[in-house]
Design goal:
This protein has about 400 residues and is an alpha+beta fold. It has helices at about 5-20, 25-60, 80-85, 90-100, 135-140, 150-155, 165-170, 215-220, 240-255, 270-315, 315-325, 330-365, 375-390, 390-400, 405-410, and strands at about 65-70, 105-120, 120-130, 145, 160-165, 180-185, 190-195, 200, 205, 210-215, 230-235, 265-270. The two termini are about 35 Å apart.
């Protein structure tokens, strides 16, 4: 930056801030218009970013190296009956997949239902009851808090034992050690042999409101007609996408799917839930940006109008400055800095209000809020840019005033 330009900027800034201080009411009104736009934008984006962070944390509880093979995809698109009519998996197929997929670290069938779980007059409804094998606890990153997990022996002899989630333990056994106690799942007795560490919610579903029982015990107790899925963990360091591609061929071979026929199964992984979630939040981002841009447009038009009024009121001043040798560039810089300063101050105040609003929403509602530093800087910078853009016309108009005519202006 040359010395002349630097002098113009410094002088323009000094005059701009002096003018803003001399017209406080006008400055406040213009600042409020921009502030509302930035506050609205940041409040919405803050809530969305908070939801994203919360969802990423919840999704991590599923594990980044897990796959699930099932009749149904996690996200159903198209004809539900097409998936419903697919063949069920069988236990021999689970063992065949285990033998043919060397990249699998652990594999377990999993079947589930909702049930009522009670103990000593206390009862919890709509509890997730899962039938699993010992390996499922490693696949789902379930940690045993006390007692033990299910064993292969439990499954082999169909023992009526259960490992309960943290919410079930707190709801049925407040202040009591649940180990060795007998709970009733839909009226059937099961002995508690272990409790699980808390995992939290996933898509507003409480993962800790769950009971794990041996897979074969589940079928012998609740009926064998329910289809099950196959959950598996891929070896650490193995590319999950390559593993999925290999798994498709293995499952087709195990199920006897004819060449050329469509897959009669679905391979699900946590990333698919993330993609679906991103599509939903992408629409919310679009709405937020649309609202923010409209509000900022209105604020920008307000800045332009105020600056045009300012140019008219200061026409004689501009004429005197031009007559004393001020260049057009100096006048342009002055008015652009004035417009940008008003807008930046409004952006800063709007940022504070927007962050405060997002925080209040997160405190009084289940919605999370988490605004990133880059978003804050972007909000203030964007507000200043709006002022700069909408100040161009008034600045150019001021610079192009005829000095003689400006001096005559009353």
């Amino acid at each position: 930056m040359s010395k002349a330009v630097r002098v113009d900027v410094m002088e323009g800034a000094r005059i701009a801030f002096f003018s803003l201080g001399a017209n406080r009411m006008r400055t406040v009104l213009t600042t409020v218009g921009i502030g509302i736009g930035v506050a609205t934008l940041l409040a919405i984006i803050g809530i969305i970013q908070g939801l994203n962070a919360s969802f990423d944390k919840q999704l991590a509880s599923l594990g980044s190296n897990t796959l699930q093979v099932s009749k149904f995809p996690w996200v159903i698109k198209g004809d539900w009956w097409m998936y419903r009519n697919r063949k069920n998996f069988t236990l021999p197929q689970v063992e065949q997949i285990r033998a043919q997929a060397p990249f699998i670290a652990a594999i377990s069938p999993i079947v589930g239902r909702n049930g009522d779980v009670g103990f000593n007059g206390q009862q919890l409804s709509t509890v997730d009851v899962f039938g699993v094998t010992q390996e499922y606890f490693a696949i789902g990153s379930w940690q045993v808090m006390s007692g033990r997990s299910l064993t292969d022996a439990d499954n082999a002899v169909t023992r009526p034992v259960a490992v309960i989630g943290a919410t079930v333990a707190e709801g049925l056994f407040p202040g009591i050690n649940p180990l060795g106690r007998s709970i009733r799942i839909d009226g059937r007795p099961f002995q508690v042999v272990g409790t699980l560490a808390r995992k939290g919610k996933l898509l507003e579903r409480d993962q800790d409101l769950a009971v794990m029982v041996p897979f074969k015990t589940f079928y012998s107790t609740f009926g064998k007609g329910r289809p099950f899925s196959i959950s598996m963990a891929v070896d650490q360091g193995q590319d999950i996408r390559k593993a999925e591609e290999q798994l498709v061929g293995i499952v087709r071979r195990v199920r006897g799917t004819p060449p050329g026929a469509a897959d009669d199964f679905s391979i699900n992984r946590p990333e698919q839930l993330a993609q679906t979630y991103e599509q939903l939040t992408g629409a919310l981002y679009g709405v937020a940006l649309g609202v923010g841009f409209i509000t900022m447009l209105v604020g920008g038009i307000g800045i332009m109008n105020i600056m045009l009024v300012s140019v008219r009121e200061r026409t004689r001043e501009i004429g005197i400055r031009r007559a004393l040798g001020a260049r057009k560039r100096t006048i342009v810089v002055q008015f652009l800095m004035e417009a940008s300063a008003v807008s930046a101050v409004g952006g800063l105040l709007g940022t504070i209000v927007g962050l405060g609003t997002a925080k209040v929403v997160s405190l009084i509602t289940p919605l999370a809020a988490d605004v990133q530093a880059g978003t804050i800087m972007g909000g203030v910078g964007f507000a200043a840019l709006v002022g700069l853009l909408f100040g161009i016309w008034p600045a150019a108009r001021a610079a192009n005033l005829d000095p003689v005519e400006a001096l005559r202006y009353e």
